[in-house]
Amino acid sequence: MSSNINKIVLAYSGGLDTSVICHWLTQRYDAEVIGFCADLGQGEELTGVPEKAKSSGASKCYVDDLRAEFARDYIAPMMRASAIYEGYYLLGTSIARPLIARRLVEIALAEGADAISHGATGKGNDQVRFELAAQGLAPHLAVIAPWREWDMQSRTDLLNYAARQGIPVQASHAKPYSIDANLLHTSYEGGILEDPASAPDEAMFLTTVSPERAPDTPAFIEIAFEHGNPVALDGKPMPPHALLAALNKIGGANGIGRVDLVENRFVGMKSRGIYETPGGTIWYHAHRHLEAITLDREVLHLRDELIPRYASLVYNGFWFSPERHMLQAAIDQAQRHVTGTVRLKLYKGNVIIQSRKSQFSLYQPDLATFEADAVYNQADAAGFIRLNGLRLKVAGKVQGGLAG
Q1: Which DSSP state fits 201?
Q2: Secondary structure (3-state) at 232
Q3: Is 17 known to be catalytic?
Q4: Catalytic (active site) residue 28
Q5: Does the annotation mark 380 as catalytic?
Q6: Of 82, 94, 178, 358, which residue is the catalytic one?
Q7: Whole-model pTM?
């Protein structure tokens, strides 16, 4: 406990953890606590958040609409990189944390606070994401992580604390898993989901229907891109946050974007997360299909080699790192000609390509055709194969090939 901490800005969501933390901070530090809640598209979750924060001990609570910035400056650059973690996860929680941390620090500086605080547990990735960002943006601020300080060990302990202190919370012993929602996804972790052998309850999902309950008639959409960014849906220009919201609606109605994943956390353990990313899944696939005709082969292959590294940087909390900025510059250079339109069919959980067009398409029908052409001399392939096979031929002779 530090006697120098008189004002704390807390990343506040209105949920169980941060409501308890808000009250606990006022008691533990005898300090003024100011809440900050980022509107990243979580919708009804924001209802009454300032009142909840004050009822938990905060002097006031900022609620900032960051949806446009989130989609434009965080989701879009990540999607230009086609970032996906461990083959499945589109990083919906991970990419939100640097923006929340940045605004948290800005408010702390404006308010003259001595410290910031967050609700991430000592086992989770978010503690790393928040604190690495804070170290890079305002290293003089203290960071308070209550889950690493108090003697409470579980969300059951938090529920009991809330009941004793009269703190209003929506979580219950009957539904003890954690939900995190934003414009890109909704995630579910912990509690009854911790057994990876158990399937999730269908009633849990908030933004998607199951593929079985999706319409029997497919939906068709067309997305226009400029320089790797989506700019229009079905011919209607939209900013990224509005376009993503529209994709979420149509994708959710068609059962798109569910993932049940056991992932490797940065802190060293495996964890099970369930994600709904309807709009992001559509965006990801549309972008990849357009890249297939607009990116040079070696550029595409090199960028794909960088995807795991880029995704790990986002997942592990290094959004503001120099290496992420360096990778972004290279990726954005490659995206200059990723401009065109992609038409997709959405059907019972599937995103199916229908067509892709671009003024910068590198696909040339007169080269690719199996019909007669006057462009490609097939006899040239013989020398190409001989030169590429030379080292293999030498090795086969020296080492005996199958006989060796």
Answers
A1: P
A2: strand
A3: yes
A4: no
A5: no
A6: 178
A7: 0.92
